[in-house]
């Protein structure tokens, strides 16, 4: 069996069409966009074409799109710069306990600078509670940052309602949409989003490039100082090839979004159903009703997730236990912990994320290998032999 890649939440393969449009900008059209000669002008025009293209996918103006090195930089820029610009108005920020570390660590840094951060609890499905959000709002609250969809369990937050609360209280709203952009429909104006982060390598574009949407009303400070690139807000020579690739990846993603979403979701539902039916003592984590199309996060009792990953790797199956940014961390997932999942069960977690390139045959083979691997691991687990308390899958 050839390699089966089921870790698309970590990164995705670059589409051949994307690689093709990038190639000329490495050795032929290699000009610096800040130059005045023809080749530089062509590169500059390519950037503006992509800026308009990305803006159209969000129904915003091109001038509100800023190119970055990816989701982490976009999150850092959105949170830190907004906070610094508005610190005279207030120093209180609201986020959730299940955010990506790019958000959590940016907030932690701001706490060392005198800001106060409220970290909201989530329910058992990984959703922010509206009542908790309302209670957390203060007169000095300047920013709410809640991710559009969780990178581990796939739960999609009720962003429209959160944006409405932010608007009613005159608070800027940032969302980390790294997992959502290109996968599900997003309407920043209707959902009252002021800042949105995205990264090309999550929707079959190249690594090292992303963007930050900044509503014209947001007084964001410059993030990287130097030259006048990105309208004096983000200095540094632009990654032209990467940006062009991101534009093509976005074009493809949005052109076939509904069809791809339906196909991927069908495979995901089949995968979750079979795992729950054929492997006892397992639990699906996160909401099934409000979930990213390709995300399957499942915990198996009486095993260690890392051991399961190694057995699957032997079968040429690529998967993960949690966020790629948490690889090597021996502690249970902060997302699962915030959702109230017991530590022992959280340690037996597997994240399978399906992409456009996956097939039904690959899903069937993966189910077979997981069943065999879990059985093997449990045969050597003392607590499995002693304790066989049954619990059902959480399907809502």
UniProtKB/TrEMBL annotation:
Its EC number is 2.8.1.7. Keywords: Iron, Iron-sulfur, Metal-binding, Pyridoxal phosphate, Transferase. PROSITE patterns: AA_TRANSFER_CLASS_5. One of its GO terms (molecular function) is cysteine desulfurase activity. It catalyses: (sulfur carrier)-H + L-cysteine = (sulfur carrier)-SH + L-alanine. Its cofactor is pyridoxal 5'-phosphate. InterPro entries: Aminotrans_V_dom, Aminotrans_V_PyrdxlP_BS, Cys_deSase_NifS_bac/arc, Cysteine_dSase, PyrdxlP-dep_Trfase, PyrdxlP-dep_Trfase_major, PyrdxlP-dep_Trfase_small. Residues 4-365 form the Aminotransferase class V domain. Catalyzes the removal of elemental sulfur atoms from cysteine to produce alanine. Belongs to the class-V pyridoxal-phosphate-dependent aminotransferase family. NifS/IscS subfamily. Homodimer. This is Cysteine desulfurase. The gene is nifS.
């Amino acid at each position: 069996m050839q390699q089966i890649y089921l870790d698309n939440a970590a990164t995705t393969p670059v589409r051949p069409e994307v690689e093709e449009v990038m190639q000329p900008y490495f050795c032929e059209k290699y000009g610096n966009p800040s130059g005045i000669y023809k080749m530089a002008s062509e590169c500059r025009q390519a950037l503006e074409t992509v800026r308009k293209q990305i803006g159209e996918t969000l129904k915003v103006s091109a001038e509100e799109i800023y190119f970055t090195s990816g989701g982490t930089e976009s999150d850092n820029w959105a949170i830190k710069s907004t906070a610094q610009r508005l610190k005279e108005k207030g120093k209180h920020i609201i986020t959730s306990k299940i955010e990506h570390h790019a958000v959590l660590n940016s907030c932690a840094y701001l706490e060392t600078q005198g800001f106060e951060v409220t970290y909201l609890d989530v329910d058992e499905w990984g959703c922010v509670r509206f009542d908790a959000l309302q209670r957390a709002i203060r007169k000095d609250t300047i920013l709410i940052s809640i991710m559009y969809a969780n990178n581990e369990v796939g739960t999609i937050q009720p962003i429209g309602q959160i944006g409405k609360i932010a608007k009613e209280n005159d608070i800027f709203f940032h969302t980390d949409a790294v997992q959502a952009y290109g996968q599900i429909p997003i309407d920043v104006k209707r959902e009252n989003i002021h800042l949105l982060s995205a990264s090309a390598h999550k929707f079959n574009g190249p690594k090292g490039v992303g963007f930050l949407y900044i509503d014209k009303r947001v007084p964001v400070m410059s993030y990287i100082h130097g030259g006048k690139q990105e309208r004096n807000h983000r200095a540094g020579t632009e990654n032209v090839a990467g940006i062009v690739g991101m534009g093509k990846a976005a074009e493809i993603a949005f052109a076939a979004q509904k069809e791809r979403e339906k196909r991927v979701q069908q495979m995901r539902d089949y995968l979750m159903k079979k795992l729950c039916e054929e492997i006892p003592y397992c639990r699906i984590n996160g909401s099934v009703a409000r979930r990213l199309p390709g995300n399957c996060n499942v915990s198996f009792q009486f095993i260690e997730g890392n051991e399961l990953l190694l057995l699957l790797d032997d079968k040429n199956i690529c998967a993960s236990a949690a966020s790629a940014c948490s690889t090597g961390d021996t502690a249970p997932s902060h997302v699962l912990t915030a959702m109230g999942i017991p530590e022992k069960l959280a340690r037996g977690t597997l994240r399978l994320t399906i992409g456009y390139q996956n097939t039904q045959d690959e899903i069937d083979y993966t189910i077979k290998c997981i069943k065999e691997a879990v059985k093997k691991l449990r045969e050597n687990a003392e607590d499995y032999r002693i304790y066989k308390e049954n619990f059902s899958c959480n399907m809502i």
